[in-house]
Design a protein that fits this description.
With 320 residues, the protein is of the alpha/beta class. It has helices spanning 15-26, 43-46, 59-65, 84-102, 134-150, 173-178, 203-214, 237-247, 259-265, 270-277, 291-297, 305-315, and strands spanning 6-10, 30-35, 49-53, 71-74, 105-110, 122-123, 156-160, 163-165, 188-190, 198-202, 223-227, 231-233, 254-256, 287-288. 38% of the residues lie in helices and 18% in strands. Strands 3-2-1-4-5-7-11 form a 7-stranded parallel β-sheet, sandwiched between helices. Strands 8-10-12 form a 3-stranded mixed β-sheet. Helix 4 (84-102) links the parallel strand 4 (71-74) and strand 5 (105-110). It holds the Pfam family NAD_binding_10. This is SDR family NAD(P)-dependent oxidoreductase.
């Protein structure tokens, strides 16, 4: 029998998984996390979480870890996008099997990768999903499998958001495109086409949104999908301006991102290959509204952009 406030978090050492795990623990949940070598984790990472040795690729490990849980947060991804296409779907199948056995609801952090240019610029939860990229196609397949499983009693919650940024965000455009972690900001490298809007999502806000929705289980459909508005930057200047204000350098130079280098190194650097595939999201605007989300929560958790950017730069060690 599932315990009402027991959660298993897959990917708890990552940005969104770790943030959700901490917030659940703060709200009185018993939080478990799966890791291949828990002994190597820091005391900070272990705090408030029961760590279980296991591998998200092994279905038996996930099923055992989820026994008695009412929630499984599926926030696990292969590090650095290595073998992404080979590992993502098998890991999801492990989670679906565990949810089927335990009766838990699955929570999945979603992305905008599901959508192709035919759905732009205004996208809602029902917009057609016709991605033109390999990564987008995998995202669509993940959601298709979860929706199919929901018809068999496996409940799912998906929260789609824009590009993540935050103090503990993992692979993201802010820390791998705009600034260089670990050193004071001396220049901003902006990937977007001049004058093109872009949607950002502050990771702590995403985690808080997920937890608030989890707390409203009775208001959720068996297959529930919500979009976050996050931070909409209409032409790219808002994020650049926030970085300048956070660093106290109003004259900080902002130049174009070196896409030529990404193209050149893509054959040997998996991360660059993934970045290059998503370039279209920087060339055309895509904006998600949050009307459905507000209908359930009343409001969307929202940290002001300047505060979010300052916290992010501080977490990256980029404020000097």
């Amino acid at each position: 029998m599932a315990h009402e406030k027991t959660a298993l978090v897959l990917g708890a050492t990552g940005g969104i998984g770790g943030e959700v795990a901490r917030r659940l623990a703060e709200r009185g949940w018993q939080v478990r996390a799966l890791n291949r070598d828990p002994a190597k984790l820091t005391n900070e990472a272990k705090a408030g979480i029961t760590w279980i040795e296991g591998d998200a690729m092994r279905t038996d490990d996930v099923v055992a870890a989820a026994r008695g849980a009412s929630l499984i947060v599926h926030a696990v991804n292969p590090p650095g996008y290595r073998r992404w296409s080979e590992l993502v779907l098998p890991m999801l199948e492990s989670t679906i099997a565990a949810a089927r056995a335990s009766g838990a609801r699955i929570v999945l952090p979603g992305t905008v990768y599901n959508f192709g240019p035919d759905a732009f610029p205004e996208v809602d939860e029902t917009s057609a999903q016709k991605p033109g990229t390999r990564k987008g196609a995998i995202r669509v397949e993940m959601e298709r499998r979860l929706e199919a499983a929901s018809g068999e009693g496996v409940r799912t919650l998906i929260v789609r958001a824009g590009d993540f940024f935050g103090p503990k965000a993992a692979n993201n455009w802010f820390s791998q495109g705009l600034v260089k972690p670990g050193q004071p900001v001396s220049r901003i490298s902006y990937p977007g086409k001049r004058g093109t809007g872009h949607q950002w999502a502050y990771l702590p806000d995403v985690a808080e949104t997920m937890v608030r929705l989890i707390e409203r289980e009775g208001a959720l459909d068996a297959f529930a999908v919500f979009h976050m508005e996050g931070h909409w930057d209409a032409d790219g200047s808002e994020m650049i301006g926030a970085i300048r204000r956070a660093t106290g350098k109003p004259g900080l130079k902002a130049g174009a991102f070196p896409w030529w280098l990404v193209t050149l190194a893509s054959p040997v650097v998996p991360l660059f290959k993934e970045m290059g595939e998503m370039r279209y999201l920087w060339q055309v605007p895509l904006r998600m509204g949050n009307q459905r989300l507000r209908s359930v929560l009343g409001e969307e958790p929202h940290t002001p952009l300047d505060a979010a950017v300052r916290a992010t730069l501080k977490g990256l060690g980029s404020l000097g």
